[in-house]
């Protein structure tokens, strides 16, 4: 686990410093099947093969372009790539929705936020010690395996299926409060809560 | 000072990217002011990455990598590694820098440039277009000591204070506070005496009329009978 975190960081650094395509191919082989799996579901709930491939292309292109802004002291490579995949997914869905709404759109309807205006990537974040970071990731990895099924099931829906709490509540026919409390219980177990909550 | 934060539901949906844009705008505004929630978001992103990495991989098209290589070889500046920088938001006076990035973008340095609608002498608002057709976002400004007419909430409302402070029957709210009001609550926000109060608000409501005032005073009369 730790070895690969370092290896993916090095790939990104090689891409940034010398446009290393072999390093990029290694990243692509590892991450593109994950991005495709993460992918995009249409509002009908079905998975779209074309959109999924588009998401892979767009995300990996940005990984190549943005490699220079990756800082291994601030982020893990996997978190950094996940963030780009998430933002690219939001962007593709927005474009798609805009396209569908075209017929009712009027000229002054676009203020034009970029995804990054709202999903701002690490605005003056703390610099974490790399070792401490890897330790916490390891325990996160282990604790995730120990979560009760109903909690990890909901966490996966939240993160991987692009469904909000309300959409999940609807789909599973549960009260919104139940979905919220399962997520909160899971975060408690993972020790990912802020004291004030 | 900062006391009201988005709950776990808003923060995880924001981190996962599924929160509607208009509400995400409010969370982003809060994050701009709240170090503790920013730190929490970065932890939630690590959790997301962990789940992301443990997914069952789904094979990509055989030509996917080659297609990408063609894009990199295309003679466009975007193909250079490390050259993409997120859009620069216009550089502006210090006071303006204090506003969240998305708000800086629409105001372009001067809130007077926005199209404002006055409602009485002490309150005005300016609508913000987002990609969310279910909710309406606006900037609200209450003059020092002024108030928003007493109103009822037909749907949920999120308010984030961007400048100054305001009070209602329950508490006083300061810059960065993220306040959620649910359907059916009645309140009368009053700005503090010494400073104008600027807020960002996202309201769950069908956009029926351009005149927000009518919805404020008679929210139930203006529901659409059908969508067209
Ligand atoms: Zn906060």
Question: What does this 3D model show about the protein?
Answer:
- The complex is a heterodimer of chains A (about 200) and B (about 230).
- Chain A has about 200 residues and is mainly alpha-helical.
- Chain A has two domains: about 1-130, RNA polymerase sigma factor, region 2, helix turn helix motif (Rna Polymerase Sigma Factor, Chain: A), CATH 1.10.1740; about 145-190, Winged helix-like DNA-binding domain superfamily/Winged helix DNA-binding domain (Arc Repressor Mutant, subunit A), CATH 1.10.10.10.
- Helices cover about 65% and strands about 0% of the residues of chain A.
- Chain A has helices spanning about 1-20, 20-40, 50-65, 75-100, 115-120, 130-145, 150-160, 165-170, 175-190.
- In chain A, helix 7 packs across helix 9.
- The two termini of chain A are about 30 Å apart.
- Chain B is α+β, with helices and mostly antiparallel strands and about 230 residues long.
- Chain B has one domain: Jelly Rolls (Sandwich), CATH 2.60.120.10.
- Chain B has seven helices and eleven strands.
- In chain B, strand 2 and strand 3 form a beta hairpin.
- In chain B, helix 1 crosses helix 3.
- The longest helix of chain B is centred in the first third of the chain and has 19 residues, at about 35-55.
- The interface between A and B is large, with 83 and 71 residues.
- The complex binds zinc ion.
- Zinc ion binds next to helix 3 of chain B.
- The site of zinc ion has 5 residues of chain B, from helix 3.
């Amino acid at each position: 686990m730790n070895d690969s975190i370092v290896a993916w960081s090095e790939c990104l650094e090689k891409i940034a410093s010398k446009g290393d395509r072999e390093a990029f191919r290694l990243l692509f082989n590892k991450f593109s099947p994950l991005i495709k799996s993460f992918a995009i579901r249409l509002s009908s709930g079905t998975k779209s093969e074309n959109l999924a491939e588009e998401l892979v292309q767009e995300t990996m292109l940005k990984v190549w372009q943005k490699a220079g802004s990756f800082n291994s002291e601030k982020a893990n490579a996997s978190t950094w790539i996940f963030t780009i995949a998430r933002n690219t997914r939001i962007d593709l869905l927005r474009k798609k929705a805009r396209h569908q709404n075209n017929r009712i759109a009027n000229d002054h309807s676009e203020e034009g936020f970029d995804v990054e205006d709202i999903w701002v990537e690490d605005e003056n974040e703390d610099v974490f010690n790399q070792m401490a970071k890897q330790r916490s990731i390891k325990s996160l990895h282990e604790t995730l395996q120990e979560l009760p099924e109903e909690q990890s099931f909901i966490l996966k829906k939240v993160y991987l299926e692009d469904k909000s709490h309300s959409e999940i509540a609807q789909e599973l026919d549960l009260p919104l409060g139940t979905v919220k409390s399962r997520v909160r219980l899971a975060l408690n177990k993972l020790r990912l809560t802020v004291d004030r909550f | 000072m900062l006391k009201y934060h988005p709950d776990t539901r808003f923060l995880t949906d924001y981190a996962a990217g599924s929160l509607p844009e208009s509400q995400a705008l409010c969370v982003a505004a809060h994050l701009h002011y709240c170090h503790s929630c920013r730190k929490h978001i970065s932890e939630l992103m690590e959790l997301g990455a962990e789940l992301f990495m443990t997914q069952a991989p789904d094979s990509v098209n055989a030509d996917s990598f080659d297609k990408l290589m063609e894009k990199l070889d295309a003679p466009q500046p975007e193909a250079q590694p490390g050259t993409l920088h997120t859009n620069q938001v216009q550089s502006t006076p210090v006071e303006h820098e204090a506003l969240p990035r998305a708000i800086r973008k629409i105001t372009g340095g001067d809130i007077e440039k926005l199209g404002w609608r006055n409602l009485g002498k002490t309150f005005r608002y300016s609508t913000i277009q987002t990609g969310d057709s279910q909710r309406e976002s606006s900037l609200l400004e209450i003059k020092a000591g002024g108030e928003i007419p007493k109103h009822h909430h037909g749907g949920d409302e999120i308010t984030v204070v961007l400048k100054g402070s305001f009070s209602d029957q329950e508490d006083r709210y300061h810059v960065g506070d993220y306040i959620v009001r649910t359907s059916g609550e009645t309140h009368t926000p009053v700005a503090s005496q010494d400073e104008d109060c600027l807020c960002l608000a996202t309201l769950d409501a069908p956009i029926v009329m351009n005149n927000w005032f009518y919805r404020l005073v008679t929210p139930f009369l203006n529901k659409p009978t059908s969508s067209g």
